[in-house]
Amino acid sequence: MRIVVKVGTSTLAHATGNTNIRRVETLCRVLSDIKNAGHEVLLVSSGATGMGSGKLGLLKKPEDIATKQAAAAVGQCELMYTYDKLFQQYNHCVAQVLLTRSDIEDPARREHLRNTFSRLLDFHVLPVINENDSVATEEFFIGENDSLAALVSTIVDADLVVLLSDIDGLFTANPHQNPDAELIEEVREITPEMRLKAGGSDSGFGSGGMSTKLNAAQTAMDAGIDMVIANGSHPEILYDIIEGKKVGTRFLARKESA
C-alpha cells in the first residue's frame, strides 16, 4: 500500500508547543515498521509553527503573518532534525518537501512534484511534507495540512490517507461538548448535515478542525482514495488501520469498476 499519514500539532506537541518526545518517538518507530513490512509511506507533518512558538517562548499561536512565518522557520528546523534523528535509528532516510498551493495547482510544477515523489519512493525514502509556511503569502496558502495530505494523495495515487488528530473520528456531535455524541464508523457520502455540525480547531496551536477534515475526505474520495480519521495519541493504531480494522471513521471512496 501507498499511504499518506498526516499528523497534527496536537499529536506532535504538548499544549506548551514543546515536542511530545515519547509520542513522536513512537510514531517514527511505527512508521518505520510499516515501511519494513513493504508499504510506502509519505508523512504530512504539522507542528512547525507550534514547535517554533515553544522555542521562541510564545504562549499562544501567533496571530500576525510575520510572527507565524518566523515561528514556522524556527520550528521546521527542529521538526526535521527530530525526524531525521529518529528515523535513522531504524535505518530509514527522510526528505523534506515544503509546498505551496501553486506547486500543486500549476500543471507543470505538479508533474515535477509527482516525479520527485516517485523517485524518492523508488529510493525507499520517507518524504516529510509540510506547507512552506515561512515564505508562502496569503495568495498561495493551502492553510492547513488536512487538505494538503489529501492533495498529496491525489498526486502520488495513494491507496489510503490517514489523518491522526486529537479526536477519535467523526461524531454525530462535538464530543468535547456533548457526552452523548456517537462515533460514526463509516461514511460513504459527506452530507450537508455533517458539514453543518463540523466545528473549528480545539487545539491552541493547530489550524485544522473537523470542517477541514471533511474537505480533505471529499478530495480523497473524489479521487477514489479511502481516508481515515483517528486519534493519534497512540500511533500504534496505524497497524489496525492498515489491516482494515474498525478504527476511527473510514471514508469509503467510490471505486471505478474495472
In brief, what are we looking at here?
By secondary structure, the chain is α/β, with parallel strands linked by helices.
Mean pLDDT comes to: 88
Structural class: alpha/beta
Q: What is the helix content? A: 40-55%
What is the spatial order of strands in the main beta sheet?
3-4-2-1-5-7-8-6
Biggest sheet architecture: 8 strands, mixed
Q: How many E strands?
A: 8
Q: Radius of gyration over alpha carbons?
A: 17 Å
- Secondary-structure element series: EHHEHHEHHEHEEHHEHE
Q: Strand-residue fraction?
A: 15-25%
Q: Based on CA inertia axes, which overall geometry fits?
A: globular
- Distinct helical segment count: 10
Task: Write out key terms for the chains shown.
alpha/beta, eight-stranded mixed sheet, single chain, 258 residues, 43% helix, globular
Ordered list of secondary-structure elements with their pairings:
Layout: E1 2-7, H1 9-12, H2 21-36, E2 40-45, H3 48-55, H4 65-88, E3 94-99, H5 101-105, H6 107-122, E4 126-131, H7 145-156, E5 160-165, E6 186-187, H8 192-197, H9 210-222, E7 226-231, H10 237-242, E8 249-251
Parallel strand pairs: 1-2, 1-5, 2-4, 3-4, 5-7, 6-8
Antiparallel strand pairs: 7-8
